[in-house]
Specification:
Order of helices and strands: HHHHHHHHH
Strand content: under 5%
Helix content: 55-70%
Radius of gyration: 45 Å
Structural class: mainly alpha
Number of strands: 0
Number of helices: 9
Length: about 220
Amino acid sequence: MDTTTSAQHSTASIDLMGPITMVHIVLMIVLAAAAILIIWWGSVLRRRRRQADRQVAENREIAEEAGATAPPAVEAPLGSDVPATSPVRRDAEPITPPAPPPHAESISEPAAAAVPPAPPAAEPTVEPVSVVTPVAAPAASSASELTQLKGLGPKLASTLAELGYTRVDQIADLSPAEAEALDARLGAFQGRMARDRWIEQARLLTAGDRSGYEAAFGRL
């Protein structure tokens, strides 16, 4: 009798533990799925933020190369301590100087007649001045030549000039290994050579193929 009763209690306990264990398993699965979703969403947000920061940095570099930074506007001071000047009256009567005494004219006339006229002054001789024509530095003209390439501004041109690249034909003659080595020395501008296709532009300009250049990259 006691054995039968204990067996019944054991069976009832097992039947009660079954639903409780299933509920726990379902809750654990839901929590794990929620945690995975939160981690995935956080990685998506971090990726978007990195892309936005990269885009902002590229836009800032392009703006610096183009020299599009506008000078700050100077506002006029609101409170000025400079006193206002009174307008000049145009209808004021002219002040006439007092007339000299009559005997002054009679005295000054003989004195003026006694003074002999001064001889005419000799015209100064103007010596010819030799004008020295300034010679432009070759580095500056070469750097301006590099700016013909799309995406290569004055700042990048000066950086390339410091590295020894001052002409378009030097960029056109770069081999793949040389181009990779030069790109690695551009610092913050690394990757611009391949993105803006400098070598292809330089080869078209060096060959004089203006129509082909404008068809591929737009007007010069």
